[in-house]
Amino acid sequence: MIKKNKPLRVAILGTKGYPYVYGGYETMVKELGERLVQKGVELTVYCHKPLFEEKPAEVNGIKLVYIPCIESKSLSQLTHSFFSMIHACLSRADVIFVVNSANGPFGLIAKIFGKPTAINVDGLEWIRPKWKGLGGKYFFWASKMATKLYDQIINDSDEMQKIYQELFQAPSKVIAYGSNPSLRADPNLIDKWKLEKEGYYLIVGRLVPDNNADLILEGFTKSATKRKLVVVGDVPYKDAFAERLKNLPDERLLFTGYVRDPHELAALYQNCYAYFHGHEYGGTNPAMLKALGYSCAILALDTCFNREMLQNGKFGWYFEKNREDVKQIIDKAEQHPEEMKKLRENSPAGLTQKYNWDHVTDQYIAVFEELAKR
Question: Same domain for 233 and 341?
Fold first, then answer.
């Protein structure tokens, strides 16, 4: 247990900050950070200074430090993490927790200062299509450095743990990403897009090659279903890949762009006929956890990570990475509505204790307390 006379002091860096919720890491900082404070941890989160118009020193008991960075697509995160790490090493923090394997080399700074560290390394960044060439080489090298320079490596799935062991001979601890499945939304919220309950398939994710939206969309257009395919997500920049998908000539395709209202997003999940998951390179995926919690029938790309999350087909069906297989799984889904209904009814049971945020928080506290003793 944490001693009341001396609270455990933890610094978190590598995200855009708090309470800025943009992606998986920022959501983790919010869910984990607020729980850490409730359990008596003295927490500091490092924030990207340019993203915050207002800069309070503390929000919800979490101390906030605003660090500048070089504002560019490739340098903003790295420069922010570099300066944040120096600041954290000069602070009173007992443990520094870093996210994103791109920050692997900065573990050297903490080594020099003698600060205990842990890093959550995320997915197989070095083989993502968006990091071709030099970017991919950097991510591989940085991930390797992380295994040498940080005191504790954390993976969010058993399959990712195996990969780190095989590639880098690096032991790690598995702590999954958490889920909040309790939000029930008004089903009438989907009227905004003129949708009907179970009258559409759903994709949620950025329109990038990693998520295989092109494969799913092109397979869908070959199918004979009268249902729509709703695509929630976009990219925050002009992009030829995304534009090509948005211009596919099929009246059944509906692109909503970003849906930031959590109730509207929940309604889209909860009322779809099936949710398509094409994510390929990550470990525990937040969108998949939402799909399980919101009672979706899940059709997932056949990867080791998706097999782990869906317990080898217990909570979803798999398709191979080709357009014909996407068409065939849609045909199968259309022909077996009772089986789809069963998947929807059973999917919340896939959110085992492993994916509970309170359980996740307790696991992180155990890691931080162990590191602080060193």
Answer: yes
Residue 73 pLDDT > 70, yes or no? no
Amino acid 27: pLDDT: 87
For residue 228, give the 3-state DSSP assignment. strand
Does any domain span residue 2? no
Residues 6+ apart with CB under 8 A from 27: 21, 286
The tens digit of pLDDT for each residue in 141-164 reads: 999 999 999 999 999 999 999 999
Q: 212: domain CATH number? A: 3.40.50.2000
Q: Quick one: 153 and 209 in the same domain?
A: no
* pTM score of the predicted model: 0.89
Return the residue matching tokens 């065939």: 328
Residue 123 within a domain: yes
Number of structural domains the chain divides into: 2
Question: Domain of 191?
Answer: 187-352
Beta-bridged to residue 301, according to DSSP, are 319
- In angstroms, the Cα distances linking 50 to 44, 66, 86 are 18, 9, 19
Alpha carbon 366 to its chain centroid, in Å, reads: 22
Contact 274, 15 (CB under 8 A): no
Are 363 and 34 spatial neighbours (Cβ–Cβ below 8 Å)? Answer: no
Q: What is the mean pLDDT of residues 276-305?
A: 93
| 218 lies in the same domain as 97 | no
Range with the lowest mean pLDDT among 153-162, 257-266, 307-316?
257-266
Are residues 220 and 133 both part of a single domain? no
Q: How far apart are CA 310 and CA 304, in angstroms?
A: 10
